[in-house]
Amino acid sequence: xxxxxxxxxxxxxxxxxxxxxxxxxxxxxxxxxxxxxxxxxxxxxxxxxxxxxxxxxxxxxxxxxxxxxxxxxxxxxxxxxxxxxxxxxxxxxxxxxxxxxxxxxxxxxxxxxxxxxxxxxxxxxxxxxxxxxxxxxxxxxxxxxx
Length: 146
Hints:
By secondary structure, this protein is of the alpha/beta class.
């Protein structure tokens, strides 16, 4: 009988549960107020167990980033509009690791893009290094939540 028509006795592949990224050693767990609210909402719907404990630890270590005195410089929480050399526009917000979602434009403050942007101002050029080469970006707009 062909192997295609038999059932292997091996169990199915385990389901992979993605955990939140960890912070580098000694780096504070900064979050936006919205990020802390989101963590609390997830905790409220999570059953007791390892994931629940992990969320409690993230919330306990969370530091809500203080309001900024200089709104002309890119810092944690900034909404930044970037333009590539070919004119493509991209919007990102620099957030904590717990709320990062690059596909939605939410970039963790420890990510290479955020590190390249921190301290920059409107009109500054930034060179982002990537595996396929570099990408030149211009900061065209900057804002913060009220």
